[in-house]
Amino acid sequence: MSATKILLVEDEEKLARFVELELNHEGYSVTKAFTGREGYDLAASGEFDLVLLDIMLPELNGMEVLRRLRRVSSVPVIMLTARDEVMDKVAGLDQGAEDYITKPFAIEELLARIRATLRKQSSVTEDGEVLSAMDVSLDLKRHSVTVRNTPVELTKREFDLLHYMLKNKGIVVTREMLLEHVWDYDFDGGTNAVDVYIRFLRAKIDEAFDIKLIHTVRGVGYVIKDELSD
Description:
alpha/beta, five-stranded parallel beta sheet, four-stranded antiparallel beta sheet, 8 helices, 12 strands, 21% strand
């Protein structure tokens, strides 16, 4: 079995070397990049299983690298940041990062987050590659969504939300279930976040294509039905 390939995008060379050695010791194959532009080019190549991405980088900052990367790849990303600001963390997660860790960090914590992210990714790839309901198709491998063969551009969070609901087609999912399985971190924003993202999905799919895909079950949550009736 080949080693898991990790791309480390970090401009602090001493830290990068330390992390590289620790990851090598754990059996991972590590490639380093020291600028945002180099990191993006490597990450977009499709050669890596996971990316560790610093926020403060020369040429392109980590947030911009992540934004561009999510247009072409769903490779899992863990953000590395010296900032302990809530908005930086939220921005990274909303742009499509799977997790974040704040410097200085214990290597044991980083290793645990890497293992958790890879486990989650493995469970995703074991699912069926294409899920569908009504005229909507979600392709996991290509990380794409189409309605009547027309591409629909979704953010990472919208894609994950639609994916979870399609996996549970015909089953009513509560807001709490969605927060747990889609947000998948200690989210303290209340259940309103779910309603906001459901509105985003409805605007891009239900309203844009005049279909009724996502149904509200009052007092409980939401359900995707593969039928015309409400």
